[in-house]
Structure formats: structure tokens, C-alpha cells
Amino acid sequence: MNTRLRSQDWFGGNDLNAFIHRSWMKNQGIPDRMFDGRPVIGICNTHSELTPCNAHFNDLAEQVRLGVVEAGGFPVVFPAMSLGETIIRPTTMLYRNLVSMDVEESIRANPIDGVVLLCGCDKTTPALVMGAASCDLPTIVVSGGPMLNGRHQGRTVGSGTSVFEMSEAVRAGCMSECEFRSAESAMSRSPGHCNTMGTASTMASIVEALGLTLPGNAAIPAVDSRRRVLARDSGVRIVEMVVENLTMSSVLDRRSFENAIRINTAIGGSTNAVVHLLAIAGRLEIPLELSDFGEQGRDVPLLVNLMPSGTFLMEDFFYAGGLPAVIAELGDSLHRDARTVTGKSLGENNRDGVVWNHDVIRSKESPLRDNAGIAVLTGNLAPKGAVIKPSAATPELLQHIGRAVVFHGIDDFTARIDSPDLDIEADDVIVLTDVGPKGFPGMPEVGNLPLPRRVLEQGVRDMVRISDARMSGTAFGAVVLHVAPESAVGGPLAAVKDGDMIELDVPRGVLRILIEDDELQQRLSCLERPKSSNTGGYQRLFVDHVMQADQGVDFDFLVGKRGTEVHGDNH
Ligand code: FES
């Protein structure tokens, strides 16, 4: 190696500090030769039994470790706070930035030359990538892989998507609670993350699209032996990347993000990709704006027929060719010269991608839907923007004018939505306030609000819903999300009253409240906001520093790269 590794600042030499750094590490049985200047590879492990999607990660870490040793590196596994989407309260999004700080500081403070990020459940991917991006060492991502397909009573059951469907069926009286309960074990029958194109599968695809993983990362099921091979190969590759000094910022540029947006469109990916990509780009100081999602995704068709936009699941996607097949199919719609961690371009990596099942991965000539990108909306109700996923919505509702029925906070919604006294019809627009980044706080995934029972009983399964929240990547519906600025900071959503007419026009990118500007300004000037229940601790840090959805919901003081320079030592 030509350049001195930063790990040698700990392990090189013969002074007091070098003795201390090496000696205590040797209590693990590490031989002296491991400190001879070989690359030290940190393996960031988000294993936790409280994050079921990542509960198999110790095995994955072991495979990476084998690869690092095989390539002549020195592997060290370190933990990061893990975020189990289904378990954590009040919402994992409250902690994404905290985990990114954990990862960033862990990398910088330790003798690490390159890092492998083990990511799975929704927020673990963006959090780890954001933290590593601010350090900007050679970095490779290994995703944990999706669960196998779920089957129940002869039909396919997809994580999340089928739960929302079945829950509404129970509320509408079309499914018994006993059947609902028996579907639980049928849905989650193997290690891995959600098997739909929810946020975890989306982010696994996004990191592959960005070029941060070896080809094929996104779709290999968690339990398939090829997932272990990918982990081991990634361990080999990261050692080479350290030798080549292939840092994250030398891999990623604006082209990588444009590719990620386009691929997210082709796969029918989660709206959560918007806030996560904005935040990652912010860490790398790569210009990316909310409007880019509308512009870059506009002409891209939906090719991947997976729930919630389609029919199949990630296991089917893998057998059909996975992301390499999608990348090959998209052809010149992508920047094929974008760099990747392999040292080759995205085009070179995926040149041999083949579609094996055209029901699962459609051709560009016969897509599931044309112009399928996440739509960015603006207007007097969302001056800084809002998003909707048209591919997951009822097409007839994408141009709609309806009467607002307003709920202030999720407790208000839960208390009144099924009330027989509630004046609400299928054509109305449900508006929910106080569920944004600061207002909740943490911007939970409640935007896909359940419909009123009365409307469900009429056979209706979709209504226009608008909020400053996010929604699960596994969810569906005519759901407008991420309204910015949020209601809690005086955004116009807070001024909507029951009975106001709301216009949603997705083809024109418009979200408006149909009242005069003077009236809207007058209402905004005398808004009374509820007192914050923010009592202190981390939550205070969050509320004081979190940015709005159009800026990725990162903390203002975390934007940018800070490198890995450390001054001084403890001894
Ligand atoms: Fe972990 Fe869906 S709950 S990926």
C-alpha cells in the first residue's frame, strides 16, 4: 500500500499509545501480525432480536468477516443502535438521525479504514449510509435480504400490504378475527425484511442503484445461500476498495442519485426513498432537491410488478432477474457510466442482466404503468411541496376535488373516524395535521389512514388523504404525504377547516385549498398551535434541529461531510 492507513495511527509504532491499543485488542486472541498495516475493516452490525428483520445479521457479519480475512484485511464488528420498524415506538423515523450519529462517531473514533454496513429493516439502511457518508471512507453496503413469500389459505400474503388489506376486510366485516390471526405466521415465515416493495426492499434497491453494493444485492432472499456469498464477496471487495482509496464520495455523484430516482420509479419504490435520498445527498454535499424526484422520475415506466403497486413479492423478483435485469431493461434511461463500488460502471456491472419472467419484470414496451414516478405536488396547501405515489393510488382519484374533513393529530383521528356522528362521504378528502417532523415529533407512517367504517361498508377502498406524515412503503391509496412546511410550524395544512374544498391534480402537480389568498393568510396569521409536549432529552434535540420533509428530515447540524480526522488521544 502506498498510503498510510488511518488505523496505523492507533496500531502502528511502539509508543505507549500503540502498546495500549494493541494489547487490549489482543485479549480477543488476535495475533500480533494483524497489526502489521493491513486494512482494518469495520463491520457495522445492526443485529437485534428486537429488529426481527435484522435478527439473522450475526451470520451475515461472519460471512463478511471471512471475506475480509480472505483478502488480507483485519475485520472488526461493531454495533449500531438497531431500529425495528414494527416494534419501536413512537416511530423509527425519530431515531434515524440518532443512529446516523452513532455510526458516524463510531467510525471516526475507531481505527477503521473501510466499512461494511449491514442494513435491513427500513431505517437501518439510510441511517447507516448517512453516518458513513459524513465520514467518507471506502464503504460497501450488504443488505439482509427479504423474507420468503408468504402464503395463507391459498393466496399470496405480502408483508404490510396484505395486513392493511386484511385489517380493512375485518373492519368491513368480510374477514373473521380468527382468520386474521392465523395469517400472522403465514406472512412472516423466514428470516429477512418485508417481502413486498416496501421501504426495506426499496432502500436495498436504492443502495444497489446508487452503486454502493455488489450487483444483485437487493433481491436475494435472506435465507438463500447466495446472500452469504454476496456478504463474503463484499468482505473481499472492501479490502480492495481501501487499497484503491475508493471512498463513498468518489463513487457517488449527481448521476448516481438520478439513477436511484429513476430506478425507484421502475420498481414502484416507497415514498420514503424521497426523504432518505435527500438526506444522504445532503451528507455528501451533492445537490438534490424535491423537484428532482418529479423531473427525473417523470418519463420512467413502472416495470416491476410487486406489491403494493402490483402482484408479486421479492422472492419472485429475485427469480425473475432482480435489479440487474431492471437496470439492463432501463438501458439508456440511466446514466450507465455512473461509478460503483466494484470499480466498474453501473452499465458494466449489469450488462448481463436478464428478465426471466416478464409477468414480474415487464419490458419498457409493455410496462405496468407509464410515467410512474413519485409525483411532487405544490400549491397553496404545500408551498414547499408534497408527494404522492400514483402507482399505488386509485387512478380516478388522481384528479379530484373534495370537501375537507379535518383531524388534528392521530388521537383525534382515532377517536372520531368511526363515529356514527361524523359527517363524511367517500368523495371527501381526509386531512390530518400535526404528524410532521416536529409536530408528532418524528413524522410517523400514519399517512395511509384507515377509511371510515361507514365508507368501507359501502365497498369503497380508497379516498384522498392528505397529511404531513409519511406512509409505510407497503401501503397503498390516494395518499398525499410529506406536506411542507408542516402544520406544526404554521404550514397551510394547519389552516384547513371542515368543509373547505381541496383540489388534488396529480398530472398537473397541484395541491390547493380553494379559498382566497387573503382568507388563507388571515387564517394563518391567527393560528393557535397546541403546546408542545416536548419535555427534553433527545426529543428536544430532534425538535430543535430537524429540517422539513423537502430537506430530507435530517438535522441541520449533520448536513455535510466531516471526514475522519481525530485530534488527540485519551492516554
Ligand atoms: Fe422491517 Fe418491514 S418491518 S422491513
What would you say this structure looks like, in words?
The protein has 571 residues and is α/β, with parallel strands linked by helices. Among the domains are: 1-37, no CATH class; 150-189, no CATH class; 375-530, IlvD/EDD C-terminal domain-like (Glucose Oxidase, domain 1, 3-Layer(bba) Sandwich). Helices cover 35% and strands 13% of the residues. The protein has 20 helices and 14 strands. It has an 8-stranded mixed beta sheet with strand order 7-8-12-11-10-9-13-14. It is globular and about 75 Å long. The protein starts with 7 loop residues before the first helix and ends in a 26-residue tail after the last helix. Bound molecules: FE2/S2 (inorganic) cluster. FE2/S2 (inorganic) cluster (FES) is lined by residues 53, 85-86, 121-122, 159, 193-194, 198, 200. The site of FE2/S2 (inorganic) cluster has 10 residues, from loops.
